[in-house]
Each structure stands twice: as structure tokens, then as C-alpha cells.
């Protein structure tokens, strides 16, 4: 059984309407299903507004889903409330995009790292001190800097503190929401390498969210591509990046600014903007931007199909992969 099993997860927001007109909803997450194994990294990509961050918040039970299930280690997190949910929170943690905004400027690093230990462990003061030292070692910061405050660190160092906080109580699963996009390019690689090293040691599963496919490609075992609240394609990172089956994945790959050994530049690039999530297009929601769209695409919504072992695609014309 997978460590995490997410089934048909939905999160809708009310967007007006009522007595005299039909209620409108933004379907931010619209029937998302996937699994995640221990020690695995699943990369989640898509343009802004595709539902990535909402999915992250729902997975972490920061928002209530409309329906669906999130089963972690055999327990449906959606069924947990109050004290039961609070006790399980240590098992699933988040690394935020903006480390500065996510750290309390009035708290020392020691106090920031001590908080989850006080909430989720029975460690005494000496035990907490030792664990905080271990965490700082793990993320490459000096133990003697524990008394400092967030403004005394660089952006990359602050993200290391955010990572240490997420790791404090040995979570089974971490959502990293664009954890490097606010950092300088030179620091991004260091943080990505750090996350990979930590994963080797701890076997924590990661859902790694990014709008940049190049970063996700480097760190992930599998990739999930989202568009307007739905998963368009999911599969092994090498297969998906070398022979994408969905036109949206192909377009995302074509926009990655790399020297082009795989001929990515010849693929069809993405044009136009993401349609309003208040009124997603009929049929295939990608059809107004799809260079391969045909009549059926405007009339009938494609279903997610397994087109090869572990390779899923939501396109009428996706061909079987190996
Ligand atoms: Fe394009 Fe049609 Fe496939 Fe949608 S179903 S991605 S519009 S070819």
C-alpha cells in the first residue's frame, strides 16, 4: 500500500449567484487522485492558478475539501477532527515559498524549532536542545546561531530554517510549495540538493510544487501536471519529459529555457492565458490553447486513462506509451 493515497479530491469555492441565478463555483481542485510512496518525490507543475497551492492546503488539512479522501498510512486524514487531527499534524508538514514571511520575526531560531517539538513530542528540555542541534546540522547551519533571529540570515539560510522546522518531528510526508522560487538561482541548486540529501537520510515523501518544470525534473521521481484544477498527465519523470503524451505537458516542456538536446524547442509552445476558473471551457478544458484540438475536444471531456504502466493521461488522442 502506498504511503499516501489521494482519491477524487475536490475543493470548490463559492463565487456568487444565489436566489435568482445559479450558484457559481471556482473548482480549484476538481477530482485529483494520486499516490505517493515512502521516500518518493512527486513533482507537481502547472501555471499560476491551476490549483497547485489549493491542493497543497487541502492535503495538509489547512482547508476542508468538498469531497474525496487523503489516506496517510492507512488513516483517512479527512475523517480526523479536533484533537485527533492535531495529534497527526506532525506526520505531514509544509515548506513554504517565502521563508521570511513564514518565520516569526520576533522568535529566535531556537524558539521557532522548539515549537513543533513542544507540540508533538514528549522531549524534555535537554532532548529538545539536542534535537534542535541535530536539525541545524542536518540543514547545514551552525548550532551557535540558534539564538539569532530571521532577519540575521540570508534568503537561502532562512529557507534552511524552514526546512529544519518542517523536519523537526520526523514527518512522513512534506509538501514543498515552490520552495526555491523566491531564491537566487545560485542558491536554488543548494536547497534542491539539500532536500535530496535529507530525503535519502529520512525517507520522507515529498510533493514538490513548482511552476518551473526544470526544477521539478531535477528532483522528482514522478511528475503530475495540473491544469485548471485537474490532473492532465502523471508518470515517470524521464518518460514524461522525453515523450510527453499530453499537449499541455509538451507545451510546458517547450517553454523550459535549456540548451536543447531533446529537440524541445521544436515542440509547440504555450500561447494565450489560462481561462477563468469560474467558467472553464466545455469539453477538454485545455482545448482553446491546444494546437491539436478537434471537434470532439470541444464537446466531450476526456477521461484520465492509463496509457502505459503508471503513465496516466487525460487527452482523447493520447497514444499508448511503453
Ligand atoms: Fe488537446 Fe483535444 Fe487532447 Fe484536449 S483532448 S489536450 S484539446 S487534443
What's the N-to-C terminus distance? 24 Å
Bound ligands, each once = iron/sulfur cluster
Instruction: Indicate the multimeric state.
Output: single chain
Mean pLDDT: 91
Helical stretch count? 11
Quick rundown:
By secondary structure, the chain is of the alpha/beta class. Helix content is 32%, strand content 22%. Helix 6 runs parallel beside helix 7.
Task: Present the secondary structure layout.
Elements: E1 4-14, E2 25-36, E3 41-45, H1 52-59, E4 67-72, E5 75-76, H2 82-88, E6 92-95, H3 99-102, H4 109-120, H5 125-138, H6 155-167, E7 173-177, H7 185-202, E8 205-210, H8 213-219, E9 222-227, E10 230-236, H9 237-242, H10 247-254, H11 295-299, E11 305-308, E12 311-313
Parallel strand pairs: 3-8, 3-9, 6-7, 7-8
Antiparallel strand pairs: 1-2, 1-4, 4-5, 9-10, 10-12, 11-12
Helix pairs in contact: 4-5, 5-6, 6-7
Iron/sulfur cluster binds at residues 246-247, 284, 286-287, 290, 292-293, 297, 302, 315-317.
What does this protein structure show overall?
The chain has 322 residues and is of the alpha/beta class. Helix content is 32%, strand content 22%. The protein contains 11 helices and 12 strands. The protein has helices at residues 52-59, 82-88, 99-102, 109-120, 125-138, 155-167, 185-202, 213-219, 237-242, 247-254, 295-299; strands at 4-14, 25-36, 41-45, 67-72, 75-76, 92-95, 173-177, 205-210, 222-227, 230-236, 305-308, 311-313. An 8-stranded mixed sheet has the order 6-7-8-3-9-10-12-11, with helices on both faces. It is globular, with a radius of gyration of 21 Å. The model has no long low-confidence stretch (mean pLDDT 91).
